[in-house]
Amino acid sequence: MTRKNPRIEEVDEQDIEAGDGPKSWAAGIPGVLHSMMPAVEHMGLDRTRRTVLKMNQKDGFDCPSCAWPDPHHRKAFEFCENGAKAVTWEATPVVIASHFWAEHSVSELRSRSEYWLGMQGRLTEPVHKPAGEDHYRPVSWDEAIRIIGTKLKSLDSPDHAAFYTSGRTSNEAAFLYQLFVRGYGTNNLPDCSNMCHESSGWAMGQTIGIGKATVSFDDYAMADLIIIMGQNPGTNHPRMLTELEACKENGGRIVAVNPLPEAGLRRYKNPQKVKGIVGHGTQIADQFLQIRIGGDMALLQAVSKRVLDAEARNPGTVLDHAFLAEHCEGLEELTKHLAELDERAVLEATGLRTEDIDELADRYLKAERVIITWAMGLTQQKKAVATIKEIINLLLLRGNIGKPGAGASPIRGHSNVQGDRTMGIWEQMPQSFMEALGNEFGFEPPREHGTDAVETINRMRDGGIKVFMALGGNLVAAISDTHAAEAAMEQTEMTVQISTKLNRSHTVTGAEALILPTMGRTEIDIQESGPQFVSVEDTVCAVHPSWGSVEPVSHTLLSEPAIVSLLGKEVVGNRINADWDGFEKNYDLIRDHISRVVAGCEDYNERIRQEGGFILANGPRDSRTFPTPTGKAVLTVNELEHIERPVGTLILQSIRSHDQFNTTIYGHDDRYRGIKKGRHVVFVNPEDIAELGLADGQYVDIRGEYQDGVERMVRKFRLVSYPTARGCAAAYYPESNVLVPLNHTAEGSNTPVSKAVIVRLEPSPDQTPDAAERVTPGAAQAR
Asked: Is the pTM of this model over 0.90?
C-alpha cells in the first residue's frame, strides 16, 4: 500500500520570482496538467483513477475541497485543479512510520513548514505526548481513548473544555460530535464558520431569517446579472467558472467587485470544451470594479440609492412594489436614510468613479434576475454584517429573492461547513434544536451559549479552557494573531487533534497532547453492518451521499463517526440514551436520529438514498416566506463607516495562493499571480510603492499599526509591484495572520477582520537575500 515519499520541494524563499502581474485567464490545459501530474506522481495511476475520476460522481465521494454544488448531469471529469490537489493530498498512500515519532521531537516539528509537515504522509496510529516530554509516542486506541476520557472527566466543569470542528467533517460525524459534546455538558463548539461566513449567517438571519443561499444550482445559468463581490472563484472554487460561463452563454452579464484583478474573473478556458482548449475561452467579467478594501458597503448603498432615485423619477416602474408590500418591511426608513448618502464619502471609501457606480446601477436596473454572490472578502471586514445586510437591501428592492435566476449566494469555501452547522455545530444553536435533541436522547442539554473560535483562544489564554479537542482543521494556523493563539494553546493541559495528516496545530500543544488518525473521505468505510457512506450539504442546501472509493492506507485507521462514538461511550456513556456501539457499526442509526432532531431532515435515510440526495427546504427561496420575528424580510438601516488609513500606511488583506487550500500548502507557486518559489511576498500598487519611497523587489518588514501595546510584525517579505487598488496591499495567509489582532473582529459576528489590517511597510535592515529570516509561520515577531 505504501509508496516512497514524493519529492519534498522545500524552498528557502531567497529567490522568489515575481512575474508580470496577474494572468489573463484561468483553467484550460495547464489546469488539467497541474491536476493530474501531481496525482499520478504521488498516488500512482490506478489510485488516481479510483479517486480523482470518482470525485463528485453520483456513486463516488464528495470533493474534500470547496462546497460548490454538483450539476444534475455530471461529466466524466467533474473536478477542478484544486479538488484534484485536495484528493492527492488526502489519498496519498505515503504513511508516517512508527519510528518517525522517535526521530522527530515536537520542538523540531514546530520549526518545519506546513508544506513539509503535510508531505510526510498519512497518520495511521494514535500518538500521545505525555506532560513534560517533547516527543509523541504511539499508543493503542484503547489507551488513547482512556487518556482523553480520564482527563475530560477530571475537569471541574465541562465548560473548561472546547471542541472545534472543521468543515470537512461529514453530517453524520458532526451530529455525533455535537451530541457527545452536549451530552458531556457544554456548548463550547467553535468551528471554522466562526472565521469565514459567520458574518453571512448573522446578516442573513436577521434580515431574511435563514443564513444560507437563496439560490439553487440552476439559478446561475438563468441569471441576467451576477455580481461577484470579494471572491476569487478561479482559485477558491474553480468549478463555479463553468456556471459563470453558462450564464454568459445564455446572455447574462457578470460584474466583478474586488481589490485584486484575478485570472478567474477575467477569462475562463473550459478544458472540457474545444474553445477552452484551442480557442479564446469565455470572458467572465463584463465590468470590473477595483474597489478599495472596506468600500463594499458604500458601493452597495450607492447602488441602492440610485435604484430609489430611479423610482422617484418614474414612480411605480422600478421597485417591485407588490413584493415589498407583501413580504418586506423597512422600506420607508431605508429610503429616508439613503437620501442623505454623501456621494463624496462613497467615492473616497470605494476609490471608484461616479461613472463606474452609475454603470453598475444601470446594469442592475435593466436586469430582471440578479444574483449577488460573495465570500470572505466581505465577511472578514469590521462592518461585514452591515455590508451583507446591504446586499439583502439591494436584492429586496427589486424582488430578487424567491424567483428563478435571482438571490443571495454566499459561497462556502469548505466542503461541509454548511452541513456541520445544520447538524448542530454551533455554540448558539436555537432552543428548538436543543429541545428536540434533549427529547430524542433523554437528557437536558446545556442552554448557556458556548465559546466561538476567538472566545476560545481568549479563554485558553486566561486559563478558563484547559482541554482543547479538534475534529479536523488547523486552528492555530487558521486563527488570527498567530503568537497569541499559540501562547494560548500552550496554556492548556491537554490538546487532542483528530486528523488525516500532520499540520501546525500538532506542534503547538498543551502540556499533554494526542493525535488520533482518521480515515479520509476518499477511503472505503466498512463497519460491522457492512459498507458505510456519509452525507454532506453543499452551498445551495443540497444534501447528498459520499462513498469512499479506495482501500484505507492502514487497517489501524478509524472513521470519524467511529472515533466520536468511542469518545461518547467513554466520556458520556449511559448518561444519555445514545447507542454509541450501534452508531459505530451502522451509520443509518445516526441518520434516524438526525431525521427526528434536525428540521428539514425528516426521513433522512430514505431521502439520502434517492438519486442525487435531496434539497433542504428554504423558505425565502422556495416560497418567499421569511422566518423572521414578523414573518417579513427586513430592509435595514446601516451607518456607513470609512476605514481610516493614516499617512504612510496601507490596508492589508490576507489571501490564498493558487497552490493552497485554507492552511494546507500544496506548493510554493501562485501561477495566476506570477509568483514562484515562495510565499513571503506582499502585493502593492506601483504608485503606492513609489509614494512610500520603496522599490519593487525590495525586502520589507510589515508592521501592524494597532495601539494595544503589542508589536506585530512579519519580517523579510518581498515587495511585489501589482495592480492592486490604491492604498491597499495583500499577503498570503497563514503567514500574515500574525498581523491581525485577536480581538479585531467584525461587529456582531466576531469574525477576525483579516481583510482590513492597517500596516506600515519598512525596509528590512539587510536587503541581501541570504539574510532572510525564516521562522514558521511567516517569520513573525510579536513583542
From this structure: yes
